[in-house]
């Protein structure tokens, strides 16, 4: 099974940028569909961006054009590049993996593996 560890979170001014990383061990990320989810205090975990096993990427409307999900197979790492951040992006961000061809952003329960999360705080 795969273990996931996120990094790269922090505090940033509105309109700033951050790059989140999710480094995998125990297995190659090539076997999985991958995604980033986020959870703000008092709210349920919500999908942000997903990368299907065939490389197709999908985003929720609120981050479209601002966030980019990508993967470097040589580093066995998933990334989330976040630009033009707004306070509403403040949340704990989690990477997730599913041993199937796609991972639905609307169904966190379909993920098989989760990282521990990294906090992103956007200051207005």
Largest sheet: 7 strands, mixed
Distance between the termini: 40 Å
Q: Kindly report the oligomeric state of this protein.
A: single chain
**Order of H and E elements:** EEEEEEEEEEE
Low-confidence stretches: none
> Helix count, per DSSP?
0
Instruction: Estimate the strand proportion.
Output: over 45%
> Which structural class is indicated by helix and strand composition?
mainly beta
| Residues in helices, as a percent range | under 10%
Average pLDDT = 96
Radius of gyration: 13 Å
- The number of strands is 11
Shape: globular
Summarize the structure.
The chain has 124 residues and is mostly beta strands. The protein has strands spanning 3-7, 10-13, 18-25, 33-39, 46-51, 57-59, 67-72, 77-82, 91-98, 113-114, 118-123.
Would you give an account of this structure?
With 124 residues, this protein is an all-beta fold. 0% of the residues lie in helices and 49% in strands. The protein has no helices and 11 strands. The strands form 2 sheets. Strands 2, 4, 5, 6, 9, 10 and 11 form a 7-stranded mixed β-sheet that branches. A 4-stranded antiparallel β-sheet has the order 1-3-8-7, with no helix packed on it. A hairpin with a 4-residue loop joins β7 and β8. The radius of gyration is 13 Å and the shape is globular. The N and C termini lie far apart (40 Å). The mean pLDDT is 96.
């Amino acid at each position: 099974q795969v273990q996931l560890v996120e990094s790269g979170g922090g505090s940033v001014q509105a309109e700033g940028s951050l790059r989140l990383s999710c480094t995998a061990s125990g297995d190659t990320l090539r076997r999985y569909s991958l995604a980033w989810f986020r959870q703000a205090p008092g709210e349920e975990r919500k999908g942000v961006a997903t990368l299907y096993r065939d490389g197709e990427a999908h985003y929720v409307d609120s981050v479209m054009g601002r966030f980019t999900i990508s993967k470097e197979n040589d580093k066995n790492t998933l990334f989330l590049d976040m630009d033009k951040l707004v306070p509403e992006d403040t949340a704990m961000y989690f990477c997730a993996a599913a041993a199937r061809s796609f991972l639905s952003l609307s169904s966190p329960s379909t993920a098989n593996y989760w990282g521990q999360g990294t906090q992103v705080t956007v200051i207005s």
